Amino acid sequence: MMGLKICLGIFFVLFLFLLIPIRYRFILEIKHLAVTVEFIFGLYKKTMELPGKKRERTADADEKIEEFLFADEERPAAAQRAEMILADETEPEKAPEEKTKENKAEKHKESADEGKGKKKKHNGGTSVNSKLLRKPIQRCFLLFLAPTFLAFCIGFIYPFLRGIYLSFCKFVTIGDASFVGFRNYMDAFNDASFIHAFWYTALYAIVSLFIINVLAFLIAYLLTLGIKGANLFRTAFFMPNLIGGIVLGYIWSMIFNGVLGKINTSILMETRYGFWGLIILMCWQQIGYMMIIYIAGLQAVPGELIEAAKIDGATKWQTLTRVTIPNIMPSITICLFLTITNGFKLFDQNLALTNGQPFEQLKDGSVIKTTEMLALNIYNTFYGQSLTGKGVAQAKAVIFFILVAGISIIQLKATRSKEVQQ
């Protein structure tokens, strides 16, 4: 608790240190911004009242206006000088012959600039005005960035670093933490329930990864073929994703027990029923969400490629495997990433559907929950009866983070390497 107070105090002092030097500057910029906005609207009104003169400003005039407005410290005087330039620019229309000569000269100059590698400038009135409005705010970016960065540090960075430190400690509350080194990590790897939960979670993640993505892609492919009622089917498939995990767990628990009760068993009595129950529940919830991502990818495939494949005599299967799938690899990457991370982080549905049951007693006398996944195992360890369980649970959480992050990074690199550039 003392560390949190010290951290908050340091951030508060830094915030004041940043605020005091720019406070006066911020007030000046607000005044300058008001003068700039007033000048822009006055200038627009004036140019609209000149029927026989040019209403468009040239790029040179825009550059001079911006230079004067931001070079001078006195904005009213700068606005007057800019207005004088505009008055010089708004000349009566010239004869057609003179216009033709000027246009030819400008085109010749632009072609010469392009030959030298210069970029053409398109500084219209809108772009200049946006710069005039953005620049005072950009100068005071620290004032706007500091509160959000402070909240991010307090809400994420500090708890994350604190959690890593506590994984090396024995504690009941964070105020009485005592450093014990790697003992918590050794206890975590020697815990049979943690090892069982890891392999059970890995098996679940692999099976759900395959089933969810295959079914989601097939449904998305069928719904993009132009069948009737496609929008209705999309809505129906997506709606289960809007229901919370705890609610889904209890609903499907009643459904499974009602069906399995006819053969005198329950989802809590056999491990295989609990495993496939979780698979069915998560497929029903996540297929609709992945389907939407696949539909977006399928609709982004260029029609010219499909037409070219048909002209070349490709079958539907060849078009699907050689043209469609390579072009939707970004969608496949996203869906695989979400499915893997959701599979390893699964907690709500596991808690509500089986709560890790049934139990199994090992030869050494220890008891494990056969349908308990990693997140639920960490939760049960932290809130168990052992006084040393909180430190071990924190070590398990760090291992869990490293595991999920490592698998996700490997998957992203493997699938992104197969993406094609359209």
Explain how this protein is built.
Helices cover 73% and strands 2% of the residues. The protein has 17 helices and 4 strands. The protein has a two-stranded antiparallel sheet with strand order 1-2. The protein is globular.
Structural class by SSE content? mainly alpha
Give the number of DSSP strands: 4
Number of helices: 17
Q: Specify the helix fraction band.
A: over 70%
Give the key terms.
single chain; 422 residues; mainly alpha; two-stranded antiparallel sheet; globular
Sequence-ordered SSE layout with sheet pairings:
Elements: H1 2-48, H2 59-71, H3 75-89, H4 96-115, H5 125-139, H6 141-166, E1 169-170, E2 178-179, H7 183-189, H8 192-223, H9 230-238, H10 245-260, H11 271-299, H12 303-311, H13 316-327, H14 329-344, H15 348-353, E3 359-361, E4 367-369, H16 374-382, H17 389-416
Antiparallel strand pairs: 1-2, 3-4
Helix pairs in contact: 1-3, 1-5, 1-6, 2-3, 2-5, 7-17, 8-11, 8-14, 9-11, 11-14, 12-13, 14-17, 16-17
